[in-house]
Structure formats: C-alpha cells, structure tokens
Write a structure and sequence with these properties.
This protein has 351 residues and is an alpha/beta fold. The protein has eleven helices and 13 strands. The strands form three sheets. A nine-stranded mixed beta sheet has the order 2-1-3-4-10-9-13-12-11, with helices on both faces. The radius of gyration is 22 Å and the shape is globular.
Amino acid sequence: MTQPLPMAGTPANVNLAGLAKNDYRGNPSTLCQGCGHNSISNQIISAMYEMNIVPENVVKFSGIGCSSKSPTYFLSRAFGFNGLHGRMPSLATGALFGDHTLKGLGVSGDGDTASIGMGQFKHVIRRNVNMVYIVENNGVYGLTKGQFSATAEKGLSLKHQGSNQYMPVDICMEALASNATFIARSFAGNPKQVKEILKAAMAHKGIAVLDIISPCVTFNNQDNAYHSYSWGKDHEEPLHDISYIAPRSEIILEEELKAGEVREVDMHDGSVIVLKNLEKDYNPTDRFEAIRVLAEAQANNWLATGLIYIETDKPSLTDMHNLVDTPLNRLAEADLRPVREMIDKINALMF
C-alpha cells in the first residue's frame, strides 16, 4: 500500500501519511454501550493510524449481524461493501482479485462465519486471499435477540434459550484445519494486545484470521434483579415496541496478561471466561504445536490468546495467478484484447 511522505511543516499530531487520527474514524456507533465490538473498532482506528496506512488503500467488507455493522464506525474514507449473511468472503475474494493493490479488512461474527458462512469461510482461507478476517465472537446472535451461536460453550444457559447442548465451533481450530497462514485470538478487553495483533495481521501477506472474544452486554446475561434489563422486560406491559438497553461498563483488563499467564475474567452476566496467554518461547510457525495448544486450551476451557500460527512463504491468491501490476478493474479494452499475432497462433493450433 502506498504511503505518501509527510509534507514539510506537518503538524506533530499527524502520522507519516500526513493524516490525523480523526481521518481514520467513522460514524458514531449505534451498538449497545459497553459492547466489545466498539473497543475492537477503536483499536482498528489506532492500528491504522500508527501504521500510517492511507484509508483509501483499504477496502472493508462485512455480512449481517451486530459485528457486521462495525465497519461503519471506522475508516469512513475507505471503500466498503456490506453484503448478505455469510457471503462476505466471496465479495472480498472478487474485489481483491479485481484490485490487488488494496488491502482487505473483513469484519464478521460468530453467526455470520461459523454458521451460515462456514463454507465461504473455509474457501477464502483455502485461497489465501490477502485480507484480515476479524470474527467478533460473543457466542450469541445479538441482532436477532440472543439465540445461541455455533461458538457458544456447551452447557451455557440463557434465560429465553434454555441450555446449549452442543460442542462449540473453535474458530482458530477451523482456520488451522483450513491451512490459514495467520491465526490469532484475543479478547476485546485487552486493547493493547488487540491492537498489536491487528498491526501484525495488516502487515501479513495472505489471509489473517483473528478470533476476538467480544462479550455481549445485552443478551448473554442472567441478571434477575428487579432493576435489571432482563427482569424489566419480562414484567412490562409495552405500549409500543421500544427497547432500552441499560448501559454497562466495558470489560477492560486492569493489568496486561503476562506470557503464559492464566486469568479468570468475570462477564456481565456473572459467568467467567478463562484467558491463557501463550508462553514467551511459543513458536507460532510450528503447525503441530498450534494444534496441541488449541486442543489443550479446549480441554481446560481456556481461551488461548496471542499469535497462534503464521506461515509467511505461502503464495497469496493474486500471487498464484501471476496478475499484472495494473489492477484488473483498471485495464482498458486495448489492454485486454490479444494482439493479432496471438489470435493467428491460437487459430492455427485449433484448425
């Protein structure tokens, strides 16, 4: 991606691309206050600003769900396409094949990716499309009132959904099985780690899958106190179909996780998730070690966070097809028409 040099006399509050941090923001968020998705959007803004990436050199993609609204809240100057449920990967594949000079940034959710979009998720990885694929993972369908998603843990009980009977889909394990070239997991409440992983993912050539655990402050709660949102909704007699979501404080780790540390984090609903940071000497280029770490984490109900796997020498989709330097969507008719000698040569071989 081209990055213009700063002009003489550039103010101190702009980056090397000559842009201020506000140039990387989007519209105000309409998600619930305290939603982890907003924290992820903020770290995308910070990462892009600090990396001096020009927004016009990025193209954003999303499907359907709370997570897929996120691209509206960052990089307002970038190109973007909000597609159908689960179909974001094919949109990204086509667009990034048409213009290989752009960097793709897709934002999806656990429903958009691990349920209806699982097939497309597998194929965008198989083709090693040059993009960052973020899954904002909260274990519920927040936009359709909180049903269990495919990543919800077995035994999770929600007031209106009962108890989940099924084993969860592990996004990182699926990405590893599909031969993704960059796999990482983080927690929205650990903003420093999220930002650094985003930077590494943007610098990677090929598919970078980020599974970011992002708690839902609205539907993944079991609070039955009389002043809670859930209790109030159960006992009201509404005149109109209006919902009010009581604001919550965003879950942020007070201290950054140390290498190898295991830490319990309390969720809004009183449940607990267990984060495990990868050891300092962990080798993310060892595929079998990555499988072992993910299996160990699953057995212990840990969320292993950090860079889980990276492969740097696998060609991306556009490398495999040996595309010309000029993006395909900017080639003129004269560029696409074969010369007369080539047509004669083909005809001679056929006839």
